[in-house]
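Notes to self after the Tuesday call (sharing in case useful).
The group wants a holo model before anyone commits to mutagenesis around the pocket. I volunteered. Ligand is 6-O-phosphono-beta-D-fructofuranose. Logging inputs and output together so the record is complete.
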Amino acid sequence: MRSCPPRISPQQLGLLSSTLYKGAKLSTNQPPSTSKTVTQHGKYDFIVVSNRLPVDRHKDSNGKDTWRRSPGGLVTALHPVMAKADGAWIGWAGSPDEHVRPFDNNGMRLIPVDLSEEEVQNYYEGFSNATLWPLYHDVIAPPEFHRHWWDTYRLVNQRFADAAAKAADDGATVWVQDYQLQLVPSMLREQRPDLKIGFFNHIPFPPPEIYAQLPWRQSIINGLLGADLIGFQRPNDAANFLRSARRFLGASVKAHQVHVRDTTGGFSRISRAEAFPISIDVDQIQTLARRSDVIKRAAQIRKDLGDPKTIVLGVDRLDYTKGITHRLKAYGELLEEGTLKVEETSLIQVASPSRERVESYRLLREDVEGTVGRINGTFDTISNTAIRYLHHSYPVEEMVALYLAADVMLVTALRDGMNLVAKEYVAARVDNTGALVLSEFTGAADQLRQAFLINPHDIDGLKNAIVEAVNLPVAQARRRMRAMRRQIVDYDVERWSRSFLDALKAKAVRDDG
Ligand code: F6P
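Result:
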């Protein structure tokens, strides 16, 4: 059994797979099942486990299936690790009732975990996105608790854990991602105590007063405590988790450490919980922001909108946590009062399709589209549209063109683990112009202190911030943007992943010593 850490270089990590970007051509297409040089015995030193594999399936010009690396996201971060370390990625390939064999894509070994249609309904749409998602996001929508969803969540988590146990080499590092897989760390440790196991929660962790509602609260905490290191976005999320471990398990918690007991009640090991705020692939966004075709596209967007004085932008997955309706309310009132005029200001709202079979998402779409329709019906002229609403996902090049075109960016989430859109906007503003209106309920607000920080529930406060941002003198905008950019450039996604993996390695060394 080896105890050495994985071979991971500073270039090896990037950011979370985002459903905002679809079809971006970031990598070479690969057929579903090409072979590659893998460790002879098919075991891997470094394994990432996430609900989805970091690839999207497309048809090539001959109608044949090909896989394209998902743009943005964790995959950008981890792709080089996969290529350099002997790495593999375990996840669902995205279609129910389909068996996909392990395959290689662009230097990564991808190991699919199959899910049936019923499992997608109960584990993904049900327990992950209609129980945990709303519960962990301040119960903005009421979470539903169903025992059969929980049963499937356990079953599917066990399948992911089994796949990781099978693929991991002796003493390998396994990094489990996000709320869909919270039981995997303990299920994996049970089978493979030799592994170094990390877990990162990309969404908030609720305070114990809310978490208490979950009928399976102890099992989930126990599941997470199988990890050596549990990463959260904000210090407050880590603190919430530690308080829950103390309250619901009676665990002994000191500073960031939880002393985990074995089944006999004796002390067995220590698990750590800490904040590691995720970031973005700054280089990728900055490079695109300087590319002449992207700059031209930004100018074209402005022209196509009728060359307004100010372009305001919102970019979100169509999710009730994003505060899109609050933003529209504020914007509609500003038009109503005449503070903003459609001849001078245009709002582009990109709302990328998400979780469309989950009821609360269907209702949100009706609400948002009804509101946009009402505002446009009231304020549009023959030549000007109040809100250009786009229910699409775009390639990253188009997103950066939108960021460049936007004088003001609106991020009004009611609760958000981080919000990478805010960071991408800042990264794209290479000339230090532009203004960011940012909800204080996002993880990003901890780092982007020079944004116009708002409480999205305070519609008057939000309106004032939008007006201030629209009228911000250039010198002040530059001062704020420069400070925010320094933050982002200094702490990009590569640094995020490095700091997590370094901390995991340091803990393993301490435990061994
Ligand atoms: O942050 C949570 C997350 O699961 C991200 O990983 C992902 O980009 C987004 O939500 C949407 O995820 P999905 O479409 O897989 O539900």
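Two things stood out.
Residues 16-19, 51-52, 178, 202-203, 354-355, 417 surround 6-O-phosphono-beta-D-fructofuranose (CB under 6 Å).
Residues 1-39 have pLDDT under 50 and may be disordered.
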